[in-house]
Amino acid sequence: MDDNKPNLDHQWTKEIRNKFNLFIKEKKPSFKECKVFLKKLGLDLSETNLRFAAGIYIFEKYDARHTVEEIREIIADEIDELINED
Questions:
Q1: 7 Cβ contact list (under 8 Å, min separation 6)
Q2: What is the mean pLDDT of residues 13-42?
Q3: 38: exposed, middle or buried (Cβ count in 10 Å: 0-12, 13-18, 19+)
Q4: Is the Cα dihedral 59, 53, 19, 30 positive or negative?
Q5: Which of 27, 31, 84, 37 is closest to 55 using CA atoms?
Q6: What pLDDT, in 10s, does the model give residues 5-16?
Q7: What is the rounded distance in angstroms from the CA atom of residue 46 to the CA atom of residue 6?
Q8: Does residue 10 contact residue 53 with C-beta atoms inside 8 Å?
Q9: pLDDT tens digits for 49-73?
Q10: pTM of the entire structure?
Q11: φ/ψ of residue 15, rounded to 5
């Protein structure tokens, strides 16, 4: 029987999220650099985790210039592009 429990060692924690936000704010990295950073922190780069990371990345990138509603529209278009870039 297959165990469908998530692997908690490879999911977002408050500490990982705080480090990721700080990394984005200080370094202004590309999303490719973000993926490398998250992998070094031990985060599994599953599609779900990458979509969450892309949402945070885009929000930080556009924060202060757009409303939340505008950011939601932007996110819908950019997430797939970000997680699929080489």
A1: 44
A2: 93
A3: buried
A4: negative
A5: 31
A6: 545 556 889 999
A7: 12
A8: no
A9: 998 999 888 888 777 677 778 877 7
A10: 0.70
A11: -65, -45
